[in-house]
Structure formats: structure tokens, C-alpha cells
Amino acid sequence: MINKIGVKHLIGRELTHQETSVLEWLNGWEEETSSTIAGLIQAAHQHGKQESTVTSSKSMTEEDIQQFTSALAERYLQVENEHAAASELYKQGCSEEYSQAVERVTKFVAMEQAYAVYKMFAEAVEMLPEDIKYAFAQHYERLIQKQ
Fold this sequence. Notes:
By secondary structure, the protein is an all-alpha fold. The protein has 6 helices and no strands. The two termini are 36 Å apart.
């Protein structure tokens, strides 16, 4: 199945009415077919990010790297916590008998949006040069220990 919210985040804008209609149409196909198309969309996005990604941090000073990775780790943890909170709200809403369908859908959409942002951050971190990824991991671990 092609996740419309995920596609929206990958392309960085709202989907047009026609794009939404086409994605809904594709989701009506067999699971294998729509999953293949979803994989192609994701691969194209990854390829575009890799072509535009700086592969070296040699132009950054150690202070620049520390500031960047510290800020990135803080935002990453915030995004991760937002995803966890949205998921928990959705789970709670599903378990309450009086919860209305609209509330469940709203919570599900919030959870999916939080997951899409979290996944985008995780993918961005994976593409960082190794020295920056290492500094990020150190900052992230310190933040986790503070919680």
C-alpha cells in the first residue's frame, strides 16, 4: 500500500487532487503491485537525496560538527518522542469503547504523520558522513540518558 502521508513528506508538499486520486487508484491494485510502486517512489527519493548530500564534513570545523550534531540529536529525540506519544494516543483511543471513529482516524493520521517525520529523520541520519554520524550518536546517547 502506498502511504499518501509518507509520499507528501517525501515530495515536500501537499498532494494535488489528481495525485491523491492516482495513489488511491494504485492502492486498489494487488498488494504486490502497489508495494512495488511504493518502493520505487522511496528509491527515487533516496537516490535524489544521495546525489545532493554532502559526503564529507572536511569543510566543517570540530566546533561546527559539535553544534550541528547536538542540535540534530535534540530534534531527532523530539521527533522520536512525538511519534511515541502519537502512537500511544492512538492505542489508547482504540481501546476505549466510547471512542468515536472520527477521533480514532484523527489519532491514526497524527500517528502516521509523526512516523513519516521520524522515518525521514532516521534516513537523514543514516546518510550523514561517518564522523558526523558518530558525533550525533554521542549527543543522542547523552540526551537519552538525561530522560
